[in-house]
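debug: dumping io for the single-chain case to check the tokenizer round-trip. Nothing else runs in this session.
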Amino acid sequence: MAINRSPLMTIEDYLEWELKQERKHEYIDGVVYEMPGVSDAHDAITVNIIYLFMSCLDRLRFNLRTAEMRVQVNPSRYVYPDLTIVRGRPAFADASEYNLINPFVVLEVTSPTSEDRDRLEKLGYYYDVPSIEAYLIVDQRRVCAELYTRGDSGWRRQIHTELNDVISLPMLDCEFPLDQVYLGIDFEVA
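debug: decoded output
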């Protein structure tokens, strides 16, 4: 199933319209993308990662947000990452508190319909957000996690493809083994 795109829409119309929709829609430079539902594997991986973050994340310093929280990555682009971590208090583009503007770590679990956008377009969007220190992409169809971290000399990419690999997120003082990310996932079904 492909992600459905709409004809061009203004930001103001999108923000008003989106509040009334049952499904989520991302907004990229005037084009609205309907977000498809997620598979069981996608959801299980996301829940596994939430459990892992809850066991290591300092909740006095960091706030975890789910895919229900929309992130404004620039004035004409709004996305729904699968998980977003904010350092300190969440900041919003306006008083509505619907458009988060200070993501610190962003996570996407790939879907067949979103994989290219997650690895290409969204990677570029997240690179341009000054508050983002890390972007983690987790594949739901095979053991693979790509971690992009911001450093003094630019972005660094690490790929983890073994279940005994450990994903290290020093900016959060967290690390977790990949086998816990994929706990309960049957790749023949995923």
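debug: round-trip ok. Residues 15 and 43 are 26 Å apart (CA to CA).
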